[in-house]
């Protein structure tokens, strides 16, 4: 099985055979070798969450589980012939871009929403889920309208889509930011915030498993696409992932992964198409 670790960057020495500028040559070489380097290493290093059920988490046996994890394993099997050749790199929301930039991970499968700002610093492949933002609050003091949060405290993950969205659009809402999901939801349970905002995929799942809380606002903000990401310029690996995700969507494999990992949480009340009907990047 995969190992939970944050590995160091393996830097390859690449030879140039073209005659543009040195910078162009080095950049092209890096782009051309991104997929070959993964195959040469014999391991696919994937950044995932460890505390974001049901998408990426560690079970009671200490093994990684969840939708993103299962999808990453399937991708690894198709890429390297064996899902055990995956190496999981534990990340937090704020570290996903940096892990790609620094080379600690070859790809990110961690509920990574595509935004214009992020597209400037990483390359996103074909999306595999879509979601807006959801807001969860205690049933006894349910937040059902965004205006109820003015001058109150909303808990978010630092660097997350929720952090970016509410910072930009709702300056009258006080944000309490945490690095890790576990700390964020513990703060909600402890009453340190009036509500918490997460991707709707996660918000609905968490509320379903915590009956004293409710997703009073199930969707707010723009509809986001969730996709794998690679280091900016890793075009070869990016193109392979584009083809792979499209294939898994067309042949029903992503639906199967949904049925195994998410349907038991959402039940029949949530139509899988709400999350899986991805028609654009």
Protein model, in words:
By secondary structure, this protein is α/β, with parallel strands linked by helices. The protein has 2 domains: 35-128 and 227-276, 3-Layer(aba) Sandwich (D-Maltodextrin-Binding Protein, domain 2); 131-224, D-Maltodextrin-Binding Protein, domain 2. Helices cover 38% and strands 23% of the residues. It has 11 helices and 13 strands. The protein has helices at residues 22-41, 67-80, 96-102, 116-119, 161-169, 181-189, 200-209, 235-250, 253-261, 263-266, 273-276; strands at 44-48, 51-52, 56-58, 64-65, 86-90, 107-108, 122-124, 129-138, 153-157, 174-178, 195-199, 213-226, 229-231. The strands form 4 sheets. A 5-stranded mixed beta sheet has the order 10-9-11-8-12, sandwiched between helices. A 3-stranded parallel beta sheet has the order 5-1-6. The chain has a 3-stranded antiparallel beta sheet with strand order 2-3-4. Helix 1 (22-41) crosses helix 8 (235-250). The longest helix is centred in the first third of the chain and has 20 residues, at 22-41. The protein is globular, with a radius of gyration of 19 Å. The protein starts with 21 loop residues before the first helix and ends in a 5-residue tail after the last helix.
């Amino acid at each position: 099985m995969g190992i939970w670790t944050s590995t160091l960057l393996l830097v390859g020495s690449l030879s140039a055979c073209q005659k543009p500028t040195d910078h162009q040559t080095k950049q092209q070489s890096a782009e051309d070798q991104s997929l070959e380097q993964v195959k040469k290493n014999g391991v696919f290093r994937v950044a995932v969450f460890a505390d974001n059920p049901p998408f990426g988490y560690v079970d009671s046996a200490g093994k990684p589980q969840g939708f993103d994890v299962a999808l990453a394993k399937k991708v690894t099997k198709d890429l390297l012939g064996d899902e055990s050749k995956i190496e999981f790199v534990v990340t937090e929301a704020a570290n996903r871009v940096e892990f790609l930039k620094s080379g600690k991970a070859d790809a990110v499968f961690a509920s990574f929403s595509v935004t214009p700002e992020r597209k400037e610093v990483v390359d996103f492949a074909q999306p595999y889920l879509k979601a807006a933002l959801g807001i969860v609050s205690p049933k006894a003091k349910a937040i059902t309208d965004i205006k109820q949060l003015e001058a109150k405290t909303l808990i978010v993950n630092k660097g997350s889509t929720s952090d970016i969205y509410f910072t930009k659009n709702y300056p009258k809402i006080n944000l309490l930011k945490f690095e890790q999901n576990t700390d964020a939801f513990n703060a909600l349970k402890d009453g340190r915030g009036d509500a918490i905002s997460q991707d709707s995929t996660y918000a609905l799942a968490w509320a379903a498993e915590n009956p004293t809380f409710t997703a009073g606002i199930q969707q707010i903000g723009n509809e986001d696409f969730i996709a794998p990401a690679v280091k900016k310029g890793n075009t070869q690996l990016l193109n392979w992932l584009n083809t792979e995700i499209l294939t898994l969507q067309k042949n029903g494999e992503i639906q199967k992964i949904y049925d195994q990992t998410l349907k038991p949480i959402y039940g029949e009340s949530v139509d899988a198409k709400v999350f899986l009907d991805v028609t654009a990047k």
